[in-house]
Design brief:
Layout: E1 2-5, E2 20-23, E3 26-32, E4 35-36, E5 41-42, H1 47-64, E6 72-79, H2 85-95, E7 102-107, E8 117-124
Parallel strand pairs: 6-7
Antiparallel strand pairs: 1-2, 2-3, 3-8, 4-5, 6-8
């Protein structure tokens, strides 16, 4: 059985998908681009500001489900430019400080709304 996770503190889906889906003992958080949920717009600034907002959105959804970033077991980071990896990684390290999740990072041709980064996550609930 699956449960849809919906969070007011993260951007609404901009297509036919859910912010997150809880299936069994796993929560799959959809890729989060750096949209400020209050304005519905991409945050101003570069990769540092956009990574922070993307991860803040992920965190809001994870917490809405009753978990913390420490429960995240896997992330995927999509970057408009792999040249932004080091700066993204610096921000990422402030959200995951111990027992970091597995991760993949890729450069892609383009992201929705011209975002520089998109981050998805998988959470183990242990339930």
């Amino acid at each position: 059985m699956k449960k849809i996770i919906s969070c007011e503190n993260a951007p609404k889906a901009i297509g036919p998908y859910s912010q997150a889906v809880w299936a069994g003992d796993t929560i799959y958080v959809s890729g989060q681009i750096p949209i400020n949920p209050a304005t519905g717009e991409i945050v101003p600034g570069g990769i540092v500001e956009q990574t922070k907002q993307s991860l803040t959105n992920v965190k809001a959804i994870v917490e809405q489900a009753g978990f913390t970033m420490a429960d995240v077991v896997k992330t995927t980071v999509l970057l408009q430019s792999i040249g932004d990896f080091a700066e993204m990684n610096g921000v990422y390290a402030t959200f995951f400080t111990e027992n970091c999740p597995a991760r993949a990072a890729f450069e892609v041709g383009a992201l929705p709304k011209g975002a520089l980064v998109e981050i998805e996550a998988v959470v183990f609930t242990g339930k």
